[in-house]
Specification:
Helices cover 44% and strands 17% of the residues. It has 360 residues and is of the alpha/beta class.
Length: 360
């Protein structure tokens, strides 16, 4: 009798655990810098954010990835380490975390990890230098001609320690559910000839870096992998329950060569708890093509949450079609960029139809 009761309870608890694992994620990337109505002032933005959270909850959003570090290196939380956005007079992230908890919406800060500069319209490069690289110009990525990018080199230990210190500050002071790494890549395949990067390569391979040499590609891929591994180790040391996510380029084979972002390897090595490819396409065929590629290279035990580019999908039918394709393929969630565009009724209603009516 006791053994039968034990088996029943074990089965019951197993079902409960399985149900929790099967929760479908309806997520959004959200921020307080690109919306035309944001003033960066608490008196204006607090009631707006609260109103928007009510809307997101109503349409079934159960996770928010909130931008806490802008590509220039400025942050949108109360930091003692990084420069706070100069127009900000409050801590919107603290408010958002607390309000999400009230609504049972998961909250993940997303961090532009290596970016410390802004896109330059004149040069068409992300090379406008932010405060960190103004102070430490020797930490910047470079091309072969010595031109600096607005990105820190993953070969520079001091720079990576700085980026990780921001992550530590956030997860120590805010009740988050996980962390997402964004811009965890190279801006292009021409970087990184930072002297420290070149010196380390020379020591490892006993030769000069050459663009067509796969060892040069693999070396830079490995540097990024090491950054992800350090981030995972940091999270585990502070709170093993926190999940590590990454926003990745949607073409896995191209990303490994052009952005040196070999993210399927991160999944296989257990460095990520989920992967969120930014499958931003205006039509169904391309979305399906890269969704299938992403599934092919993502291990079955790593949740795959394709990103849908609501920001340039004007047709609700296309949005609905992409949602249907993702659901048909059995993904573990969908993330929309960005929440701002789901404030539009025609797009919001599409998301609500599946997130609310079909359940989480």
């Amino acid at each position: 009798m006791k053994s039968a009761l034990f088996i029943f309870l074990f089965f019951l608890f197993s079902l409960d655990g399985f149900a929790k694992e099967k929760k479908f994620i309806w997520g959004i990337w959200h921020n307080t810098y690109m919306q035309p109505y944001i003033t960066f002032k608490e008196k204006d933005d607090r009631p707006l954010i609260e109103k928007h959270l009510d809307h997101f909850q109503k349409i079934g959003i159960n996770r928010i990835y909130f931008l806490v570090k802008f590509p220039t290196g400025h942050v949108f939380y109360k930091s003692k380490i990084a420069p706070i956005h100069p127009q900000l007079d409050w801590d919107p992230f603290d408010f958002l975390v607390k309000e999400c908890k009230k609504r049972k919406i998961e909250i993940y800060p997303y961090i532009n990890v290596l970016a410390e500069g802004e896109y330059n319209e004149k040069t068409k490069k992300e090379d406008n230098i932010g405060p960190y690289l103004e102070k430490f110009p020797g930490h910047a990525m470079q091309n072969k001609e010595g031109e600096k990018y607005g990105w820190v080199s993953p070969a520079v230990e001091e720079a990576i320690n700085y980026e990780l210190s921001l992550m530590e500050e956030i997860i120590t002071n805010y009740a988050v559910d996980g962390v997402q790494l964004d811009r965890i890549r190279y801006p292009d395949s021409l970087a990184d000839y930072n002297p420290q990067s070149v010196s380390l390569y020379q020591k490892l391979y006993q030769k000069e870096p050459e663009a067509g040499d796969y060892s040069w590609t693999l070396y830079r891929q490995n540097l990024l992998t090491e950054v992800v591994a350090k981030a995972k180790k940091l999270l585990n040391s502070i709170n093993p329950e926190l999940k590590l996510s990454a926003a990745t380029f949607p073409r896995p084979y191209s990303a490994a060569i052009n952005q040196l972002q070999a993210w399927p390897r991160w999944c296989r090595q257990g460095l990520l708890d989920e992967v969120v490819p930014m499958t931003y396409y205006r039509n169904l065929d391309l979305f399906q093509t890269y969704l299938l590629q992403n599934q092919e290279v993502t291990p079955a035990n790593i949740p795959l949450l394709p990103g849908i580019g609501a920001f340039f999908i004007q047709d609700p039918n296309i949005l609905e079609g992409q949602i249907q394709l993702a659901l048909k393929q059995g993904v573990q969630g969908i993330v929309f960029f960005s929440g701002y565009f789901l404030l539009e009724e025609n797009l919001a209603n599409v998301v609500k139809k599946y997130a609310v009516e079909k359940g989480n």
